[in-house]
């Protein structure tokens, strides 16, 4: 049988099967030939037939360790780590120092992603046979599996790097270990260290240049990232395979998006789709481009197409979940996120995305104090307490209570107002969101005794990737200060807003129109429009021109500010810096200066808003202040200043409906 043994050892399993099959025709019960025939059968692709052969031998000799080892290994051939582990465990219970069983058990645990146990047993195997090359190779990949698990699911970057470094101590040029070490550096935020590995130590040019490009992006050097990927394309144009060239071209699309060269990215990916009409990675790149254009519906469609080719894809499933979240369809976002977890249990990015969803839907309570004063000495103090509860991913209810005090510089009379607030919002579909709020108020003072109801009903419509329209009806009392509150004048606002932003030129246009009917018979028309451009994205810096005009059907200046004609034009700039791990405070500011023209009178006007925000765990705090001298905003002709402090606390980590989706995830996992 020596010729058959050689065929097995050299990997010629089909020929070995034929050889031992012929041998068994003359000696059908030869156990060695049967084992070899079973091995050749399984290794050539027919695992179930090989297991039938081994089972027949076990029926004759149930305690045969040699047959048991082959049966266990056959389960590994079939990617059935659990069944293999059960057989290896039986062998080890009677022979705990069996080297082959120890190594096989370690590999079976690794196959099940139980890397801790796998690592324990491969080390036991190497104690018995420290020079076995196959065991050393198994140890290397088990270390890599365990290191990846620690880094991506546990956030234990120190432990992960220790394991990878043990591999690199044995072979400092081991490519799999270097690639994982670079990935760990990216996960922990050590971007310069990751860049060094990609740039100098990775042999595979595609992996090297793609990783290097990503590292430069995380270092904030997007222009350099684009240069790196261009260099990679140039090198691979001479030596790379068709697949390598495509991989670099797709990375080039991503680098263009990072640099906001959206038009070039869109045109380039269209060319790739013509060249590779069925390539799933090109389809994924198309989805990525659409998301950058804020075409989230188109992104969802592309991800659906992509998942038809790769249903278990990480970027496909999570990408579609994120796109649905951008559309406000958080029920689909939750479903997509938990579906992704069934394929990638404990994956850090997915858990972070779910936390982001939870942050928007978990119940919270809050309070805000605000003090304002106008240039005529009138003042207003407001303390608001509120709570919010999402009953589902698309439906939210709000409750609140507000206490306000109104005073002036002339009298000692102070008006006291108490308001109970009820509100809700419901997303009908990806295009439409409806909201409603009702305020029930009682206001009293020496000169005031009022009970009134304010309300607002609003519908938002997403007309396109660039445009949103809002229509609303609002009823409220004039209550900017005590003098206006005493008049007991109700206002009915009929509101139309248009919000547009075009990604490529980074130009936005915001307009709102108010038609107001006063209970004293007066009418007002107010138009505000703003055209602006984003100069920077991170931090956000924008500038533009605002224009507003206002008219009243009759002017009653002795009662309230009501010019027959009013115009205001101003230049404004806005700034926003978000809180990050390195920058511990979020800051936003707006400044506007211009002129207002009121019934023939011209005067300069300006306004400023500044806010500081801090987040500590579930607690969010915001300190904000403002000054405004623009009459169209103040409604009474006086400038005003205000300062406020808001505190918001998330009382639960997860929304009340969370288990509905978590349980759904368990069902998906069970039926996989």
Describe the structure.
By secondary structure, this protein is α+β, with helices and mostly antiparallel strands. It has a domain at 374-651: Porin. The chain is 47% helix and 30% strand. The chain has a 16-stranded antiparallel β-barrel. Strand 13 (586-598) and strand 14 (601-616) form a beta hairpin. Helix 3 (31-43) packs antiparallel against helix 4 and helix 12 (191-200) runs antiparallel to helix 13 (205-218). The radius of gyration is 34 Å and the shape is elongated. The chain starts with a helix and ends with a helix.
Task: Please give a handful of descriptors for the protein shown.
about 675 residues, alpha+beta, Porin, 16-stranded antiparallel beta barrel, 24 helices, about 45% helix, about 30% strand, elongated
Measured as a percent range, the helix fraction is 40-55%
Largest β-sheet summary: 16 strands, antiparallel, barrel
Overall 3D geometry? Answer: elongated
Number of strands: 16
Concise structural overview:
The protein is of the alpha+beta class. Helices cover 47% and strands 30% of the residues.
Topology:
Blueprint: H1 2-9, H2 13-26, H3 31-43, H4 47-60, H5 65-77, H6 81-94, H7 99-111, H8 115-128, H9 133-154, H10 157-170, H11 175-188, H12 191-200, H13 205-218, H14 222-239, H15 242-258, H16 262-275, H17 280-292, H18 296-309, H19 314-326, H20 330-343, H21 348-361, E1 364-374, E2 379-392, E3 395-407, E4 415-427, E5 432-444, E6 449-462, E7 467-477, H22 482-487, E8 490-502, E9 507-518, E10 523-536, E11 540-552, E12 566-577, E13 586-598, E14 601-616, E15 619-628, H23 631-634, E16 640-650, H24 658-671
Antiparallel strand pairs: 1-2, 1-16, 2-3, 3-4, 4-5, 5-6, 6-7, 7-8, 8-9, 9-10, 10-11, 11-12, 12-13, 13-14, 14-15, 15-16
Helix pairs in contact: 1-2, 2-3, 3-4, 3-5, 4-5, 5-6, 5-7, 6-7, 7-8, 7-9, 8-9, 9-10, 9-11, 10-11, 11-12, 11-13, 12-13, 13-14, 13-15, 14-15, 15-16, 15-17, 16-17, 17-18, 17-19, 18-19, 19-20, 20-21, 20-24
